[in-house]
């Protein structure tokens, strides 16, 4: 059964949601029958690198929030992350456009390393304070995920996977996704946001039960055809 997850590297709730979803998977007896696919979504595609010195300044200036309010919000998010076993360093976050990072994720997906790449990029952004728009940094992170250094470097120069990023973004819009994380189970049910693991488990069980009941053989309504042996009729 397919599970699709739309997320952005710069979304704290996406990282927290990943952990809670993983907690649900540990309790789900059929996890070996799931195909989990990460899909691209940019919360701020127009963000220019290097304009704001940190996330606190960005939120204060763009949202009009007092600095103290921003700090309280960051403390709340950091506390939520800690409950999920993550130790955010929000004060060290380097605000960056995540487009190149999404191209790297798409490349990793093609190599069967999508989940590893997501984890590495989340950690780099929220814990290690790395610039996930910088080519040199992304190259090292790609190598850490097991990708070829030269191939990653070339991809980042040519934006080889740009079309896949755009297709994910367009599909999200078609589904009505306007916020992330957004988990879609078997294109039948969805979980929006970093909900508790119990909520993920409940929807997984419901989706999987329905998926199992779906017919596995193709029902064909026969009509006039031509076959490979040259017979038509």
From TrEMBL:
Gene Ontology molecular function: isomerase activity; oxidoreductase activity
Keyword rRNA processing: no
Pfam families registered for this protein in UniProt: DSBA
InterPro entries found in the cross-reference section: DSBA-like_thioredoxin_dom, Thioredoxin-like_sf
Keyword list, A-Z: Isomerase
Record bears the keyword Isomerase: yes
Domain DSBA-like thioredoxin: 3-204
Protein name (record): Predicted dithiol-disulfide isomerase, DsbA family
Organism field: Filimonas lacunae
């Amino acid at each position: 059964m397919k599970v699709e997850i739309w997320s952005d590297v710069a979304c704290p709730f996406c990282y927290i949601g990943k952990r809670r979803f993983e907690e649900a998977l540990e309790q789900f007896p059929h996890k070996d029958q799931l195909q989990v696919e990460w899909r691209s979504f940019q919360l701020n595609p127009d963000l220019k690198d290097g304009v704001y010195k940190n996330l606190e300044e960005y939120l204060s200036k763009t949202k009009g929030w007092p600095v103290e309010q921003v700090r309280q919000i960051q403390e709340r998010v950091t506390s939520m992350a800690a409950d999920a076993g993550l130790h955010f360093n929000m004060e060290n976050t380097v605000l960056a456009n995540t487009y190149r990072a999404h191209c790297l994720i798409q490349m990793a997906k093609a190599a069967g390393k999508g989940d590893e790449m997501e984890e590495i990029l989340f950690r780099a952004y929220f814990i290690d304070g790395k610039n996930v728009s910088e080519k040199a940094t992304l190259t090292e992170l790609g190598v850490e995920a097991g990708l070829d250094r030269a191939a990653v470097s070339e991809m980042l120069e040519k934006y080889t996977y740009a079309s896949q990023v755009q297709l994910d973004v367009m599909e999200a819009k078609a589904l009505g996704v306007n916020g992330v994380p957004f988990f879609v189970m078997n294109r039948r049910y969805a979980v929006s946001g970093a909900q508790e693991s119990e909520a993920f488990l409940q929807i997984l069980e419901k989706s999987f039960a329905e998926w199992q009941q779906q017919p596995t053989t193709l029902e064909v309504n026969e009509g006039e055809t031509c076959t490979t042996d040259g017979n038509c009729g």
